[in-house]
Amino acid sequence: MDRAETELNVPQGAARMAPFPSLRRGWAEAKKMRQSYVLLAPYMILFFVFTVLPVAMAIAISFTNFNLLEFPKWVGWHNYTRMFLEDDVFLIAVKNTFLFAGIVGPISYMMCFVFAWLVNELKPRTRALMTLFFYAPSISGNVFFIWQIIFSGDRYGYVNGFLLDLGIINQPITFLRNEDYVLWIVLLVQLWLSLGVSFLAFIAGLQTVDRSLFEAGAVDGIRNRWQELWYITLPAMRPQLLFGAVMQITASFAVADVSTQLAGFPSVNYAAHTIVTHLEDYGTIRFEMGYASAIATMLFIVMVGANVIVQKLLRKVGE
Amino acid sequence: MSTISTAKQKRLNRSFLGDLFLFLFLAVFAAFMVVPLVFTVSNALKPLNELFLFPPTLLVRNPTFNNFVDLFHLMSTSWVPFSRYIFNTVFITLAGTVGHVLLASAAAYPLAKHKFPGRSLLFSVVVLSLMFSPKVTNIPNYVIMSWLGWIDTYAAIIVPAFAYSLGLYLMKQFMEQIPDALLEAAKIDGASEYRIFWTVVMPLVKPAWLTLTILSFQTLWGTWGGNFIYSEQLKTLPYALNQIIQGGIVRAGPGAAVAMFMMIVPVTIFVVSQSSIIQTMASSGMKE
Lengths: 319, 288
What we know:
The complex is a heterodimer. Chain A has helices at 2-8, 12-17, 23-61, 78-86, 88-119, 124-139, 146-150, 158-165, 179-192, 197-208, 211-219, 225-236, 238-253, 257-263, 275-285, 289-314; strands at 64-65, 73-74. By secondary structure, chain A is an all-alpha fold. Chain A has two domains: 2-61; 77-314, MetI-like fold (Orthogonal Bundle). A two-stranded antiparallel ribbon of chain A has the order 1-2. By secondary structure, chain B is mostly helical. Chain B folds into two domains: 16-64, no CATH class; 77-281, MetI-like (MetI-like fold, Orthogonal Bundle). Chain B is built from 14 helices and no strands. The longest helix of chain B is centred in the middle third of the chain and has 32 residues, at 82-113. The two termini of chain B are 34 Å apart. The chains are: A mainly alpha, B mainly alpha. Chains A and B meet through helix 3, helix 5, helix 6, helix 7 and helix 8 of A and helix 1, helix 2, helix 5, helix 6 and helix 7 of B.
């Protein structure tokens, strides 16, 4: 049985060299695979310990009452019923998270694509510079705190200073302490940070689209650049589009750091509260680990669910 | 040559107004992206009187390094010397990044080039892990760290960083382009897989190393130490930056100086490695 399995998995090249592998060759293949497993092992062990196991644990802990000190107590679905029936703040967090994801997700995805598309039309040197401009915010670490100064609530804030100077307002607006503004500011900063890996993937994807397809398209009656985009470019870079979607969706559901930094924690009337900040509240402040894990499990289901649905939709692009 | 001339002909079909609109659009958004970064650099170089000018100015008029000097004065009076925060961030970033590039490359090679039982399952789990944020696993990770006795150690930040899934994903996709013939030639010469990995595969995937480096670098460079670090001596630069900013308006100058430093390092690495990264990203696509 073992041998049959190893023979089935002989790399193609080796199979071509010897159509009827001997016992000795079979053993050699097994040995070769052992080397594959050895190469994989260090990464995979850590990956399982720090990613796979924690997901399983989060799901298990979500059915318990756990405060890190005592042994977890089984409570069944109680954490989940509490989340939806008793916790009003959670419902605000869900609403905000979906609002963020529903706006930041699609807009940032389109921004990544549109800017990649435009940047790609430039000459190489300008292209490199523009790529840097668009990508820099997402790699600049915690520099988004500069927005705190831009939207600062006193007259030294850039926006307030500007509006006061023009005489549009008489009093500085406390942007970050006002429910009407804070959500939108977090959203704006999140968009500012969102031209990340997907943007680079799209630039790369556009550069690899086969130029001869455009000529063929012109012969087939493609008239303008929108048709060219829809019928040729998008289908040709579908793999990058799928990858970019995963990156943007996951990030858009995980909004938290920007909210905590700009709007404070908790934000005024929970105006910028998200599922992740709610999770942090219960996990790192109140130490209700069972309940926090239930929130984490919900977040996991929502993120993976959204990704799976969007993957299905994107596979239809250009069809 | 003929492709170029046809491409030019095609451009002629495009309307001038459309071009103008698109490039204006590009310019406006480029400004939106860049202005906050310009503020950061410019604030770091502003003397105190310019920082509190009304109305605020975008660009510095009399650049000075006083804020950096102030920063070191400020931090020399703190309990933990400022150099310690820099050391912590640099150490965590370098150790985590080197480990990640090595381990992810070693795992990507068999996933890309060998056929063994469990290969597609392992890779699907890695792809699945791209679909949720690591924030989902914060709480169990805390429990695991305390089992391991790693709370309040560098290891709690560095070791999990070795196993970022995005790095493995990109590296594996990139390695798939290596021609099999090269690997087979090495095999016929009797090289072990370890040797092939180290002497044939690794030199071929240099662009991907740089990509994994910048991605891991940017994550670790910005890390606060999460919930795992409590000792002041082990805290990182972003934490120090936040402490300074919390000091309020009088700390605006030194705060801007740290922010500029935090920003300049990853941006410089990106400037140097941009073309390699784009090259890696060309193979980043998800196959159907």
